[in-house]
């Protein structure tokens, strides 16, 4: 894992910028925090993504792959006639070229086609998934279908990483996600940040929240707030503006010093 850890760090900070995509840099750090919790908790299983595009997030997930785990990539790729909302344009050759530049093809399974036509269990290796990124079609119908597929494929304690839920360019994603939660979805949201919403089974949500809250507590450029989404408690990561005043407000030592000074006036 040490060698892959070094590769992951290089990819997180530099490499992902060389792969065309829309993943925020900080979202890769959030992915790493989830992986660290899963390793500590003994949660294993394949990784999977719907909507691979050129591989920007998938490569980060692949670099966190544990020995023997499958890595399932689902995308329309060259079948762009089926891309009804034009949310991204996958390219299989570019995806594989980027993959080869940063990692390997161990356990790689590529499924080219419409994710809404995949039945749970159809892809044999896509069972007991621990990390499942949902970033395919952005209509409410597709999002609802993809979330249900991810739910049925997830291992106990696994996490679904949903993209663009609050992106104003794609309101259908939010509507589809809310419909999933209101129409019997078995997963619940527990963390929101960097254009991602994380889901898991209800019995694991609190432990994940606590672990991630601890991982992000005290970080100068990030604030963690408690909120709720469709009736479920969530933590929300909010970037702190890069301004000395905002940084000082986040620093307990500086705040304590300020209070002592003002009391002495």
UniProtKB/TrEMBL annotation:
<dbReference type="InterPro" id="IPR029063">
    <property type="entry name" value="SAM-dependent_MTases_sf"/>
</dbReference>
<dbReference type="Pfam" id="PF13578">
    <property type="entry name" value="Methyltransf_24"/>
</dbReference>
<protein>
    <recommendedName>
        <fullName>Class I SAM-dependent methyltransferase</fullName>
    </recommendedName>
</protein>
């Amino acid at each position: 894992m040490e060698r892959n850890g070094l590769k992951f760090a290089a990819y997180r900070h530099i490499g992902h910028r060389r792969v065309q995509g829309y993943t925020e840099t900080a979202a890769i750090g959030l992915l790493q925090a989830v992986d660290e919790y899963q390793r500590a908790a003994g949660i294993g299983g394949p990784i999977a993504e719907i909507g691979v595009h050129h591989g920007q997030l998938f490569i980060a997930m692949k670099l966190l792959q544990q020995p023997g785990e499958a890595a399932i990539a689902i995308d329309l790729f060259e079948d762009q006639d089926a891309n009804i909302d034009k949310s991204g344009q996958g390219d299989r050759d570019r995806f594989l070229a980027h993959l080869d530049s940063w990692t390997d093809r161990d356990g790689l399974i590529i499924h080219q086609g419409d994710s809404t036509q995949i039945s749970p269990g159809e892809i044999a290796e896509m069972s007991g998934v621990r990390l499942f990124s949902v970033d395919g079609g952005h209509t409410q119908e597709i999002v609802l279908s993809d979330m249900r597929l991810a739910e049925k494929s997830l291992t106990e304690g696994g996490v679904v990483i949903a993209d663009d839920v609050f992106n104003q360019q794609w309101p259908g994603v939010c509507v589809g996600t809310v419909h999933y939660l209101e129409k019997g979805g078995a997963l619940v949201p527990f963390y929101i940040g960097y254009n991602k919403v994380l889901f898991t089974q209800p019995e694991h949500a609190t432990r994940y929240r606590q672990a991630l809250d601890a991982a992000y507590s005290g970080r100068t450029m990030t604030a963690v707030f408690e909120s709720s989404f469709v009736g479920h408690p969530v933590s929300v990561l909010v970037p702190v503006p890069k301004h000395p005043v905002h940084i000082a407000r986040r620093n307990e030592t500086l705040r304590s010093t300020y209070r002592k000074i003002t009391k002495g006036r």
